[in-house]
Amino acid sequence: MDGTGFRIVPYARERHGDGPWRVVARVFAEYGFPFAEAGYDADVRWPERHYRAGWFLVAEGPGGEAVGCVGLSDEGGGEFELHRLYVLPEVRGRGLGTALTEEATRLAREAGARRLVLFSDIAFERAHRLYERCGFRRNRFRYAPDPWRSREWGFVREFDDRCEEGR
C-alpha cells in the first residue's frame, strides 16, 4: 500500500467479487448512462471471463474495497487496448486513475505493446486530461459498439523502443 492508503492489484473474484461492477455502475449512474449486468457490461461483472489473468486491475481502498478499475486486452500485431478505467467520485483527485493507467501501460509494455489505444465517452473530460498527461493523444471519434451508440474519443499512445531506451 502506498502513502495514500490505496493500492493497485490484479482482480480476484474471492477478494473483489462484484466490486468493479459496482464502481462502473455508480459512475454510469453519475452521468445518467444506461448500465446492465449482462451483455455489453458483463466484462466488469465477470472480469475473469473477459480478461487475461492479471490484466484486470482493481484500485483498493484502505479496507480492501474496490474504488477503481481498469482492464487491458491484446488486440494483436503489437496493439493493446485499455478498457474500463473508472474511479469512484469520492476518491478522484488522489492519483488513482493515473496509477491504474500506468500499471496497465506497464503490463502492456511487458507483453510487447508497440501501440496502446483506448476509447472514452465524450462526457469524461477529466479522464481525457488524465490520458493526455499519461502520454496519449486524441486521434479519432467514433460511435461506440454499445447498445446505445455512445459518442467516444479515441486515444493512442505509440511506443518507440529506440526513444524508450536509456530512460
How would you sum up this structure, described in words?
Mean pLDDT is 92; it is low at 162-167. The protein has a 7-stranded mixed beta sheet, with helices on both faces. The two termini are 26 Å apart. The protein is an alpha+beta fold and 167 residues long. The chain has helices at residues 13-16, 19-31, 42-45, 47-50, 96-110, 125-133, 161-164, and strands spanning 7-10, 56-60, 66-76, 79-87, 115-121, 137-143, 151-158.
Major sheet strand order? 1-2-3-4-5-7-6
Distance between the termini: 26 Å
CATH homologous superfamily annotation? Gcn5-related N-acetyltransferase (GNAT)
Rounded to an integer in angstroms, the radius of gyration calculated over CA atoms is 15 Å
Task: Write down the CATH topology.
Answer: Aminopeptidase
> How would you spell out the order of helices and strands?
EHHHHEEEHEHEEH
Which key features would you list for this structure?
7-stranded mixed beta sheet, alpha+beta, disordered C terminus, 167 residues, globular
Topology summary:
Blueprint: E1 7-10, H1 13-16, H2 19-31, H3 42-45, H4 47-50, E2 56-60, E3 66-76, E4 79-87, H5 96-110, E5 115-121, H6 125-133, E6 137-143, E7 151-158, H7 161-164
Parallel strand pairs: 4-5
Antiparallel strand pairs: 1-2, 2-3, 3-4, 5-7, 6-7
What's a quick, concise take on this entry?
The chain is an alpha+beta fold and 167 residues long. The chain has helices at residues 13-16, 19-31, 42-45, 47-50, 96-110, 125-133, 161-164, and strands at residues 7-10, 56-60, 66-76, 79-87, 115-121, 137-143, 151-158.
